Amino acid sequence: MNFLSLFVLVPVLMILALFLSKNRKQVLAIMVTGSSLLVILSANLVYQYIAARNAGAVDPMLFTSSVAWYKPLNINYSVGVDGVSVAMLCLSSVIVFTGVFTSWRIAPLTKEFFLWFSLLAAGVYGFFISTDLFTMFLFYETALIPMYLLIGVWGSGKKEYSAMKLTLMLMGSSMILLVGILGIYFSSGANSMDILEIVKTTIPVQQQYLFFTLTFFGFGVLGALFPFHTWSPDGHASAPTAVSMLHAGVLMKLGGYGCFRVAIYLMPEAAEKLSPIFLVLTGIGVVYGALVAIRQTDLKYINAYSSVSHCNLVLFAILMLTQTAMTGAVLQMLSHGLITALFFALIGMIYGRTHTRLITEMGGLMKIMPFLGVCFVIAGLANIGLPGLSGFAAEMTIFIGAFENTEILYRVLTIASITSIVIGAVYILRTVGKFLYGSIQNPAHATLDDAHWYERFAVITLIAGIVYIGSFPLGVSDMIHESLGNVVAQLVR
């Protein structure tokens, strides 16, 4: 068995072990053990991948293997990774690991919550290691299905409405995506669903236009593509903390990853011609998400609309079709994944104590819970691109890559997108000033406690990742940049 399959097998074994567990201690032990093992697997994968590249391996995907699933359509369980996949697997492992600790006191139905959480993780891991289009789509759907129950059962606020809205919009986009995938299969002439086989063929340009639109839109909706992003803020606001972390930190990255891996890589001519249309949409989404975040008073909605802005920035960078911008897009997926997971973790911890997420009902919390307050400030500074933190490295790479395009439309959209940094500073500093500083609004808040050990552990782990990428970005960016060369080589430009 290919060792990449362990990334799917471990969550499946966690699910089986959870079925057999008898009490809360056993459930937590299973989740900590399983998520820790996934982190170790990710670290080992990074080591093996870098070692293989240094040894001279030049294949687009490494550690590949394939097992037939359905021979009449040549559907195979095909796996393999490049630098982008490795980066996404590492991000997923960190978010799953820290999500376990932020859900330490989840109730009721603790076992059932972690069962669905593990299934969601299995879908995410399977998606990132798949090179077969149908297998990728299968894991994609596996990751989406648990969201309905995780939000509908363990969520808060308008949880039933949010869960249904999320499910309907994402399932609708999945139908469009499936049509695009089948179109690629039948028009490529490769008689295979394997991306590595399809890329060797040439899909007729007129058909590329249709299938590029279908696949980019299908994946883009999950990546919060404007104006089809409305499911995301409601889903974030109602989801339990760990689900919000995995949702924003990893699940939405499936959209950006799919756009680049399928739409751009397999249909480069259509990408060249149609990218300006989607660039306009994503450029609007970058600014719109940031502007709407200013108007919010609910901490989760502030972070949710900030995520809409940053996820559109990922799609924006991918559509620039330069190797530098695409490298920035992947760095942004990593950076935003860690930052937004940190935000949602902190918001969940604060809400668990104050029982409110409205910044107008809080104040002076820095005096009461200094650890959580300082960490929130760090997350905010990373979000607006403070040098030394991951947001700066990612956004600078994106904008430098974007300016490699000399066309006036690209330059105008890039300048407009840069304004989101200034807008971001407004809503972050406003939020911090409202609920962390000033006088205590609610006397009952004066007796609240600060973070517990498991909360501190999760938060420090996420901050460590943000600082590492921000301070030492070259190792990560070099691994990503090298892999993206195969994608850029397909482009006619």
Detailed description of the structure:
There is one protein chain. The chain is mainly alpha-helical and 493 residues long. It has one domain (3-488). 74% of the residues lie in helices and 3% in strands. It has 20 helices and two strands. The protein has helices at 6-20, 24-54, 83-102, 110-129, 133-154, 159-188, 195-198, 205-222, 231-238, 241-251, 253-266, 268-294, 299-319, 323-354, 365-368, 370-383, 390-402, 408-435, 453-471, 473-488, and strands spanning 62-70, 75-81. The chain has a two-stranded antiparallel sheet. Helix 3 runs antiparallel to helix 4, helix 3 (83-102) packs antiparallel against helix 10 (241-251) and helix 14 (323-354) runs antiparallel to helix 19. The longest helix has 32 residues, at 323-354. The two termini are 40 Å apart.
Task: Work out the number of β strands.
Answer: 2
Write down the overall geometry: globular
- The percent range for helix content is over 70%
Strand order of the largest sheet: 1-2
Radius of gyration: 21 Å
Please provide the ordered H/E string of secondary-structure elements: HHEEHHHHHHHHHHHHHHHHHH
List the helices and strands and how they pair.
Layout (H helix, E strand, L loop, with lengths): L5 H15 L3 H31 L7 E9 L4 E7 L1 H20 L7 H20 L3 H22 L4 H30 L6 H4 L6 H18 L8 H8 L2 H11 L1 H14 L1 H27 L4 H21 L3 H32 L10 H4 L1 H14 L6 H13 L5 H28 L17 H19 L1 H16 L5
Antiparallel strand pairs: 1-2
